[in-house]
Write a structure and sequence with these properties.
Elements (H helix, E strand, L loop, with lengths): L9 H10 L1 H23 L6 H4 L1 E4 L2 E4 L4 H6 E3 L5 E3 L3 H23 L1
Antiparallel strand pairs: 1-2, 3-4
């Protein structure tokens, strides 16, 4: 699982939560759904399709249930001593969402 790091925007989160916790929850859920949709529509590497199909949202986290997902994300060693570079598909998804999340927080606070 991967929880989006929100370093630097904690104050915005706290302000939105103070104004309206229901709206804050909706903003967070929107982020997870967008990341899940992105994962299922092409951001997840495909060999057999199992990794893409294993993408899930569980509470406030989005991730993959296949046990080999971290090896595809971060890379791994091979039996003959080589190394397969990670594809960083989840990291890229999070980076795209980070800017969207900030904008959605600001919009929700303005609606206040």
């Amino acid at each position: 699982m991967f929880k989006m790091d929100t370093v630097g925007i904690e104050e915005l989160e706290a302000e939105l939560y103070r104004l309206n916790s229901v709206r804050f929850d909706a903003v967070q859920k929107k982020q997870l759904v967008q990341m899940l949709n992105r994962a299922r529509s092409g951001w997840t590497p495909v060999d057999t399709g199992e990794l893409r199909q294993s993408s899930i949202v569980d509470n406030d986290e989005m991730g993959y249930t296949k046990d080999y997902a971290p090896h595809v994300e971060f890379g791994h060693r091979t039996k003959n001593g080589g190394f397969v570079t990670g594809q960083r598909y989840l990291e890229a998804n999070v980076e795209i969402q980070r800017g969207i999340y900030l904008q959605d927080l600001l919009k929700a606070i303005k609606k206040g």
